[in-house]
Design a protein that fits this description.
This protein is an alpha+beta fold. The protein has a domain of 67 residues. It contains two helices and six strands; from the N terminus they run αββββββα. The strands form three sheets. Strands 1-2 form a two-stranded antiparallel ribbon. Strands 3-4 form a two-stranded antiparallel ribbon. Strands 5-6 form a two-stranded antiparallel ribbon. A hairpin with a 6-residue loop joins β5 and β6. The longest helix has 34 residues. The protein is elongated and about 70 Å long. The termini are far apart. The mean pLDDT is 77.
């Protein structure tokens, strides 16, 4: 009976370790994608898919992956929690506060 319990505990621990490793690998992949200036082709044209957005209130900068199918109309600063909206004439927050405009404007 003890052997059965030990095997069960070992199985649960193995599953937890595997899950933790998979989550860590996915997190590292997301960080790599956000840290690199990546280009992709959309309709045959090179499009940058990352933009460093800068909060006008606290100057905090963060690299974000640009959405390719919609314009982002609001963005909350991770540091000061200010909600950013595009300025008049811009289609999204990346066109106003990002170092790379959104894919539809590139």
């Amino acid at each position: 009976m003890k052997t059965f319990i030990y095997k069960g505990v070992l199985l649960v621990l193995a599953v937890l370790v595997i899950t933790a490793c998979e989550n860590n690998a996915e997190k590292e992949k997301q960080e790599f994608v956000k840290s690199e200036k990546i280009e992709t082709k959309i309709k045959g044209e090179k499009i940058k898919v990352n933009s460093e957005i800068t909060c006008p209130k606290c100057e905090y900068k963060k690299t974000e992956v640009l959405p390719t199918d919609v314009c982002l109309l609001s963005y909350t600063c991770e540091k000061c929690k200010t909600v950013l909206h595009p300025k008049s004439g811009d289609c999204c927050v990346f066109c106003t506060y990002g170092d790379v405009k959104c894919p539809s404007m590139q």
